[in-house]
Amino acid sequence: MNRPASVRHQSNSTNGENQPRKNRASPLPGDDRLTTGRSAIDGTGCFSRVSLPARKKFGEFIGEKISAREARARVARGGRISICDLDRRWSIDASASESPTAFINHACRPNAYTRIAQGRIWFYALRRIEAGEEITLDYRPSQHPERSCGCGLRQCRGLMG
C-alpha cells in the first residue's frame, strides 16, 4: 500500500463558533459525507457525516501540486501545514484547502488509509467508519517523526514517526 509521507498540522480555525463548518470543497463530486469540527486529537479534525463502508474510497486529498524541494522548504518555515508526498519528486499542499480531508489527524490505530493513483491521493476506510466519528490516518512515514502524537490511545507510540 502506498502511503504519502504526511507533514500535516492543520489550523485550529472553525466557523468561529466551535461548530463543524460546512463542507465547501467536496472530496468527490457531489460528496457531502465529510465535515470538519473540533478534534480531541489536535485542533480541527475531519469527521464523517454518514457511515462509510470498510475498504471503500471516500475522499481525495485536494491541494496545490508542488515539488518535493518546495515541500521541504515549507516544512522548514514551520507553522501549521498539510502536505502529503505523491512520490520523490512531487507533493500536494492542502494547507489552503477547505476540503475536510486536509484536516485528517494522525492516530496510531487509524480508521483510514491512503492510496496514490495517477498523481492523486485517495482516502479509503480501513473498517466501517460511523457517522460522527473522526477520520484518522497513521502519518508514518512522517517528515517530522519526532513530533508528539496526541491520539490518546493505549497503543499510542508517543510519536508520529
Q: What does this entry look like structurally?
A:
- The protein has a domain at 34-137: Beta-clip-like.
- The chain has a 3-stranded antiparallel sheet, with no helix packed on it. Strands 4-6-5 form a 3-stranded antiparallel sheet.
- The protein has one helix spanning 68-77; strands at residues 34-38, 44-48, 57-60, 64-67, 83-85, 90-93, 105-106, 112-117, 120-125, 136-137.
- It is 6% helix and 25% strand.
- The protein is globular and about 40 Å long.
- The protein has 1 helix and 10 strands.
- Strand 8 (112-117) and strand 9 form a beta hairpin.
- By secondary structure, the protein is mainly beta.
| Amino-to-carboxy terminus distance | 17 Å
- Round the Cα radius of gyration to an integer and report it: 14 Å
The CATH topology assignment of the domain at 34-137 is Beta-clip-like
Largest beta-sheet details:
3 strands, antiparallel
The residue ranges in which pLDDT falls below 50 over 5 or more consecutive positions are 1-27
Helicity level = under 10%
What is the count of β-strands?
10
CATH class of the domain at 34-137: Mainly Beta
CATH architecture of the domain at 34-137: Beta Complex
Short structural description:
With about 160 residues, this protein is mostly beta strands. Helix content is about 5%, strand content about 25%.
How is the secondary structure organized here?
Blueprint: E1 34-38, E2 44-48, E3 57-60, E4 64-67, H1 68-77, E5 83-85, E6 90-93, E7 105-106, E8 112-117, E9 120-125, E10 136-137
Parallel strand pairs: 7-10
Antiparallel strand pairs: 1-2, 3-9, 4-6, 5-6, 8-9
